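forwarding from the other thread:

> can someone predict this with pyridoxal-5'-phosphate?

sure thing
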Amino acid sequence: MNRIYLDHNATSPLRDEVRRRYLEALDEGLGNPSSVHAEGRAARAGLDEARERVAAALAVHEDELVFTSSATEAIHMAVLGARHADPARSGLVTSAVEHSAVLGAARIRTRDGAPRIEVGVGADGRIAFDEFLGAASGERIGCVSLQLANNEVGALQPVAAITAELARLGKARPLVHTDAVQALGRVPLALRDLDVDFAALSAHKVGGPLGVGVLYRRKGRSLVPLMEGGGQESDARPGTENVPAIVAAALAIELAVAEQRAALARYRELGRAFWSQLRSVVPDATLNGPPVDALERLANTWNVSLPGLDGRTLVARLDLEGLSVSSGSACASGSLEDRKSVV
Ligand code: PLP
């Protein structure tokens, strides 16, 4: 049976050209990029080139990028690594619908009783803007973490509008981190225009290998490493870099950005066909998150409620029919209940 895999927000299949590059890099027998001999220098060259490619794709400086083991690690580095910058302001604001990596890092950051505020979202999955801004402007808030795109309902959050408002606070402006994992390759991603201090990305959501994340750290923003060890990644993240995977990840990210426009058009077309066919079979199906044609939603993400059907049972039945989808869990976001997601 030919399976149909529709769960790209969970992880996406390795692209053919990325797989080829990955295998080539493995076969090249690269050494440790911190070694000075020929193998080490070859690995360093591969790593440098990968960083340059990702920097060019994201229109940032290569010194602003740190390769990590996952977006989860990059998120922890941003949320926790900058907490010592101003101990009087270790409080944090997030949306209530952040990925569990952000919510978990936020809990760790505020373990000592520092304020942690989770701002809720409306029925369209978007944050209550004024409430978020008010919370982010609090005296003891040193960091704000707001996702660009939600992995379950696909709502896009107004990160640029939030940073524009926060800029008015001048020196009292909190650091801003955005989880951009689901935005990469799905919507235009202009980190500079977003005016954020940190952003986290993951290669495996865009046809790259598992286990490679990227932390964007705006020039001048210092981070205390989460682990002790070597001085890799400009002292930001100890541990020998996984060069072949990073080389492959860089290609995947480059392709995702280059093809983003075409991908969006295709998602829109496929989405319209999916939705009209679903509604013709299940007329009372409803879409969770932003409305069908809203610009504030990921065009590849369809989170629908089918009245009378249990999400988990449906996912299991569809799996037997060869269709891979997932059911969103209300406990992950605390905002929406009884939904079945198709992404
Ligand atoms: N943030 C979002 C929105 C995600 O969807 C994911 C993936 O599950 C992550 C973060 C974590 O990414 P990674 O698997 O690279 O740790």
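The CA atoms of residues 145 and 177 lie 5 Å apart. thats all i got for now
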